[in-house]
Amino acid sequence: MGHWIFNKDHDMFRQSVRRFVEKEITPYVEEWERAGEVPKEAVARAGELGFLGVKFPEEFGGSGGDCVYDAIVVEEFAKGASGGVGTAITATVEIAVTPIWRYGSTEQKRRYLEPAVRGKRIGALAVTEPDAGSDVAAIRTTARKDGNEYVLSGTKTFITNGVNADFVCVAAKTHAQLGHKGISLFVVDADTAGFSVGRKLKKLGWRASDTAELAFDEVRVPAQNLIGEENRGFYYILQNFSWERLVMALSSVALADAALAASMRYSGERKQFDRPIQSFQVLQHKMVDMAVEIEKARYLTYWALYLFQQGKDAVKETTMAKAYAGEMVRRVTDSAMQIYGGAGYMMEFPVQRFWRDARIMSIGGGTTQVMNEILAKQLGIV
Description:
single chain, alpha+beta, Butyryl-CoA Dehydrogenase, subunit A, domain 2, 3 domains, four-stranded mixed beta sheet, 12 helices
C-alpha cells in the first residue's frame, strides 16, 4: 500500500533495494541464520551498491539523501531477509557510526564513517552493561585521562556486531561524580591491546546478527579518539534514540507485512475438509485483524518518520511508534503461527523465525514499559 511520504524517486529506489535483497540476500538467509553471522562480503556488496550510505554526505561516500531513503533500506531488509540478517548488514550505519557522523572530527569520519558506508568496516555501539540498560547513567565503564591518552576499563553486554566489529564506539564515564553528565564516547579499534570479545551470545531470534560481551582491560586510546566533547556522551546517545526507535518500528511493520503475506499464501494452499483453510471465515477475520493492526502501526510510524525528517521534535511520536509497532508485531506473528498450525511450529517454515524475531521488538531499543514511562512525561501525566 502506497503512502504520501514516498515520492517517485523513493519508489524507484525501493525497487532497486528489493531486487538486490531478493537476488543476493533472501536465498542465503537460512544458511546465515544457522551460521550465526552474515559474511562480510554481503555487507561490502550492500555498500558497493550505495545502500549503506543513503543518508550520509557525499563528502564521506554517502548519497546525501534523506532519512526516508534510509527507512526504505530498513524496511526492505527486514521484509526480504530476516531481522538478524538485516541488523548484521545495517547496524553499523544505523547505530554505530551515528555519533561519529554527527559529532566526530573530520579525521574520525574519514577513518571510520567512510569505510563503513562502503561496507568495508564493521562497527558496534557499546553502551549496555550487565547493570546498565536503558539507565545509561548507571554505566560503570570508566575512561581515565593519562597524558595524551584515555585508559578504558569495564565490560559491555548485548552488543550488536560485537564479535565481528572492526571498531567500537564506547560509552564510558570520564567523571564518575557527575553521573550522566560525566559520560563520554570513544572509538576503540578492535585490535587495540586490552580489548577482547568475552563471548558470543546465543539468542532466541536475530540469530544471523552476532551479539557479544566485550571487555576493556586498561585499553589505551589516543585522545583524538574522543568523539566530540568530553562529558557530552549522554547527550550524543540521546540524540540517536529517536532514529533507533524509528528503525525498530519500521522493522516491526515490515516483519508483520511478511508474516501476513506468508499467512495468506499458506492458507490458500493448505486444505482441510477438501477446501483451502483460507475459505473459513474465522481465519479470514483473523487475517483482516492482522492487516488492520499493521496499517495502524504503519501510519503511526510514517507520521513519526515525516516529523523526524522535517527536523521536528518527534520524541513523542517516535516513542509511540516504537511502543505500538513492537507490541503489534508480536500479536501478528503469533496469529501467523496459529494459522500455520502444527506446520508453523516446525523449523522448516520461516513463520517460526518471524515469531522468534518479533520478540525482540518490544525489548530492544528500550522496552515497551520504558517507552510508556517516556510517553507519560511527554503527555504531562507525570
